[in-house]
Fold:
Amino acid sequence: MRVVFIAIAALLIGILTQHFLIDGLFEPFFAESFIHLCQNLFHISYDESLNMYQQLFRNNKTLLMASGMFLLLLLVFYYALSQMTKYFNQVSTGMDQLVEVSDREITLSPEMGYMAAKLNKIKSMLEKRDRDAKEAEQRKNDLVVYLAHDIKTPLTSIIGYLSLLDEAPDMPQEQKAKYVGITLEKAYRLEQLIHEFFEITRFNLQTIVLNKEKIALSFMLQQMADEFYPILTLQHKRASVHVPDGIILYGDGDKLARVFNNILKNAIAYSYENSVIDIGARQQERTIGITFTNQGNPIPLEKLDTIFEKFYRLDSSRSSHTGGAGLGLAIAKEIVAAHGGTLTVESNQEHTVFTVILPMSNDEIRKP
Structure:
């Protein structure tokens, strides 16, 4: 805009200069000065000097004015090019600062303030992604170390009890049954730890492909609650399902079952003893909302988003014996997102509520 304004101003000034000065105020003075110069310098007559002035200037005024305007436009173009070059140099400098590992803010000239703001925003986003990736990688490495260490415990127990059984074939039946039971329990625990190793690898390699079908939501959630009945009973807890029978969900049944299992497993792990985990659902115009409500210690406000990051466990002191690989909620969020839905959490002193919002039909799933 500045260059356009300068070009228009230059044209107006040129026209005014030609009309008022060259053809007006300065013309008699310039003509007399030229004639006087020719008479004194070349010793020619007044009429010949006037004729020379007519031939050189008056008859070629259009060409001379066009040449002057052309030179003026060249100067404007040069100014515009220098301004553009300056801006490109500033942007280049800003890009160099963008890739630098530095806490300095990118600064450009005042007229490039909007570009500086965008570059600083991009820099902040890149730095955050880099920090998140490093933190996730560090959590994964720590978790692998913890799991590798934890594997030794059940494996050592299995070897120890099998050695006792092998060395004492005449061991009393009651004692033998006890050792076999302990060995089997440790073997199950070892299987669980190995499964978590596979989860860590599979999470980075998997591509979520949905096989959608109609799902009777009430039946699915009730069946899931029944599957958790033994675990709930051992912890003196109960799952209560309040879902209308008529709600039909369109999605991948196996993957959504994994979502609900992961959320319920998390609710069981972090709820108080002798408490009830409430599972409910509501149908709106285009979506279906499923909620899991439990009573337990509230999740700190600053960790409400972090719990959905991979390899993150809310209680860092919780060992892998009870805490898992920290992938359940991250996987659940990805599956829900693949269905075109959202997974959120709210927590206060009274309860913690995980809410899954899913499109009700396939047409809604296809919407961006």
